[in-house]
Structure formats: structure tokens, C-alpha cells
Design brief:
By secondary structure, the protein is of the alpha+beta class. The chain is 44% helix and 29% strand. Helix 2 (37-57) runs antiparallel to helix 3 (64-86).
Length: 202
């Protein structure tokens, strides 16, 4: 049974490239060997930084200055990695997601991707200074009512590193928390406006 992962509605830049089935790596080791170095560097650094900062913060208040300093250094590295990863984003295969998660990605396209088509996938996570390089299969296509020439495709991952799945899980949770915070702030702002209108009618 295929494991289910949480997905979230969000727009990201992705590269989706059709490939023949014999181009799909036959193992995770083969995927790792094929993966462009920038993807390995970005995600391995992100994992190391996340674990290191978490360990330092657990020490207590005395480590706050050290954690802040390391965070600043990490931000510098992230800026460089963001530039390096941008070079891996190819306009001819670029699409926008409508939903993504650790198990699948949905994207809009005017091109024709066949069901069961094998695809090479690059998912760019600029706010995490990371990018995912993996393979998948087109498992669903659905025409959009607002534009019949635009189709939403679902690509389910078939070959992905465990570390990259973890990064996707953290990214979806972070975005969900941000969305919930923004909704709460919007509700609070609306409540204040309603209270003001009740107390100060025109």
C-alpha cells in the first residue's frame, strides 16, 4: 500500500520534463549518482544546519548568541545556494504548482503529458534555500473549467531520496503554519473593522 503524505495548496516553480522509462534511475543509489551536485549540496547543508541549530538552541539561553551568529552565517550560505539552484531552473520546462507535498505534486500546463508518462521533477523551495530532484509518473489529468486549454496534472513520485521527502514534509508544515497565521491575522483585522463600524456607524 502506498504511504499517504500531507499536501498543501501552494504555488511553487517546478521543472517537469518527460523522460522515457529507461531514463528513470532503477534505485535510490542510481538517483543519488545522477543528481546534479547543487541539489545534493543544498539539501545536505539544509539538513545539517537544521540539526545543528536545533541542538544549540536546546542548550539554553546562554547559547542564543551563538545560535544567532550561526543563523546569520547560514543565511549567507542560503543566498549563495539560492543563486546556484536558480541556474538549474530551465524556462522551457517550467510550470507552477497548485499543490505539493512529500508524495505528489500538482501543476498546471498547456502541454500534453500522457497518463503514466515518466517525468523528471525539480521542485524549487526558495524560502528553504532548497530544491528537490526526483522522478515521478503522471497519474491524473484534469481540464480546468475556466480555461479548457489549461490542464492540471498530478505527478506521483516514484524515485526520491528520503532526505528530500523530509525536506518536503518540513516545507509543507512551515507553509501551513504561515497560512494559518495569515488567516488568523485577517480574521482579527476583520473583527476589528466590524467592531469599529458598529461603534462608529456612518
Amino acid at each position: 500500500m502506498t504511504q499517504q503524505y500531507f499536501s498543501i495548496q501552494h504555488s511553487l516553480s517546478v521543472n517537469i520534463e518527460p523522460v522515457s522509462i529507461d531514463q528513470v534511475p532503477t534505485s535510490r543509489l542510481a538517483l543519488d549518482n545522477e543528481m546534479p551536485i547543487p541539489f545534493k549540496m543544498a539539501n545536505d547543508v539544509a539538513e545539517i544546519d537544521s540539526n545543528a541549530l536545533r541542538s544549540i538552541r536546546n542548550i539554553g539561553d546562554q547559547a542564543k548568541a551563538l545560535a544567532d551568529f550561526l543563523q546569520m552565517q547560514n543565511n549567507k550560505i542560503n543566498l549563495i545556494m539560492g543563486y546556484v539552484l536558480a541556474q538549474q531552473d530551465h524556462p522551457e520546462s517550467r510550470f507552477n504548482t497548485t499543490l505539493f507535498g512529500a508524495g505528489e505534486v500538482k501543476f498546471l500546463a498547456r502541454g500534453d503529458f500522457a497518463l503514466a508518462q515518466a517525468v523528471r521533477i525539480k521542485i524549487f523551495l526558495p524560502n528553504d534555500s532548497s530544491a528537490i530532484y526526483c522522478y515521478g509518473t503522471i497519474t491524473k489529468r484534469e481540464a480546468q473549467e475556466s480555461d479548457n486549454t489549461l490542464i492540471e496534472y498530478t505527478a506521483t513520485y516514484t524515485r526520491i531520496r528520503d532526505i528530500d521527502r523530509e525536506i518536503l514534509i518540513r516545507a509543507t508544515l512551515r507553509i501551513q503554519q504561515l497560512q494559518l497565521k495569515l488567516r488568523a491575522e485577517q480574521r482579527q483585522e476583520n473583527d476589528l473593522q466590524n467592531d469599529d463600524q458598529q461603534h462608529n456607524p456612518q
